[in-house]
Amino acid sequence: MGRLIGRFIPRSLAGWFAACWGLFLLAAIVAGSTLVSLYRDGTTERLRRAEAALARGCDAITERYRFATTGSARIDWQDPETVQLLTAATLVALRDLPGVEGGLWRSGAGPLAYAYPTYEGAGPKTDVPAAELSRIGETAEAAILRGVPVIRRYDARTQALLLRACPLPGTSLNLAAWVMDRVILFGGPAYLRAAAALAVLTAVLLGSAAWLGWLLWGWSRRLRQIEAALAGSGAEDLPRLAATGQRDLDRVVQAVNGAAGRLAEARRAAAAAAARANEAERLAGLGRVAAGVAHEVRNPIAAMRLKAENALAARDPDRMRRALDVVLAQVGRLDTLTRDLLDAARGGAPLRRHATDLGALVGDRVAFYREQAGAAGVSLEAGGDAIPPAALDGERLERALDNLILNALQATPPGGRVEVAACRGEDGLVLSVADTGRGVPEALRAHLFEPFASGRPEGTGLGLAQVREAAEAHGGRVRALHRDDGTTIEIILPEGPAAAWPAS
């Protein structure tokens, strides 16, 4: 039921206005119909009352005629006194019936007496209305002929004429009493009141339509202004909206402006917090780098010092020679560390882009390390798709692949397999190195590509950091896929033709 009702609920401001005006129009139609019905009922009632008055008038004239002619053996219709007597009797019969006029009619001779006691003119009305004489005669003749009362109605544009004729019983002179009344259909007080009410209702209806339309136009215009202001703002900023002059909308405007202020303040606070977090992260990273460098430098220095001190204390030439061998090995280790640090520092250097065939690059590096892989009992294979040359820094990608291949060979036990591939993926060009080794420890995965993050005691932890620097320098990224049977490292590079990049 709720869903059914919800379908008919307007979901826009214009819909609400249209629904309200539609309900008002329905109420106006009902009220107008009621007024028309009441007026018609009133007209019907006036016609009914007029017919009842005519019946009483006809009976009253009959009674007065009988009273006036009681005891007369013979009536002289030409005698003025007789006519005057009958006129007086008619006058008395109709004096209590407003708007009713009537008289006596003799078949073949016409009207004998006439009276209109409630006439509102300047003086008494004594003449039968000439315009209705023929209708009076037809009605009276019909009553005389049929011997029963006859009532007839004649409708004009603004009024209805009611005529009633009653045959006078007990006479052989073919006499009938007739009465007449007029009922105003249009133009009378009731009609004017109904017309005035309908006019007022129509004016209110049209006025309400104009008023609601003006309100809707004003609301729509102000809403369009707000919408345009919001649409013209940036993706991260809310504009300051101007007041519309409409109280309800201005509350919304004030709420939006307040939200914009709070959002700007929150963004400033977030930016400051992010800056502090970045600074803290930078300092933490610097601390990790410093700690790693100190650790990597301290171990060789400690080993060289111990060997030199022992050799000097023993003064044995053979022992001194072995100590010098250890010192040279540790110097080599320090040299490797220094080179890796310099490579990591050069990660922000400009790229040297040129047309690079990634498939050829993969094949070259696999061929270079195949003998080393065979000595470790590991199968090293090249795979992937044929990819057109792209504008890339081949030397930096070569060093990144070297790091990944060496890590994979060191992590894969004898009998394992390492596959190096270049292909086109959903996000761009992909260089991948997949091994079937021991996998990356869970605790190391979150910091895998950070400097000095290494799972091997002899590792410096700078190789994967250089891989990440190489990928990000190209506008790409690096990711690790941890499988049940090993690890896959992917370098994802944005794809673009070599001609789109100037050589540097």
UniProtKB/TrEMBL annotation:
InterPro entries for the chain: 2C_sensor_his_kinase (IPR050980), HATPase_C_sf (IPR036890), HATPase_dom (IPR003594), His_kinase_dom (IPR005467), HisK_dim/P_dom (IPR003661), HisK_dim/P_sf (IPR036097), Sig_transdc_His_kin-like_C (IPR004358)
EC number: 2.7.13.3
Highest rank taxon of the organism: Bacteria
TM regions (residue ranges): 16-39, 161-180, 192-217
UniProt GO MF annotations: kinase activity
A Pfam cross-reference name: HATPase_c
Lineage: Bacteria, Pseudomonadati, Pseudomonadota, Alphaproteobacteria, Acetobacterales
Top EC class of this enzyme: transferase
Protein name, entry field: histidine kinase
Its membrane topology: Multi-pass membrane protein
Keyword Kinase: yes
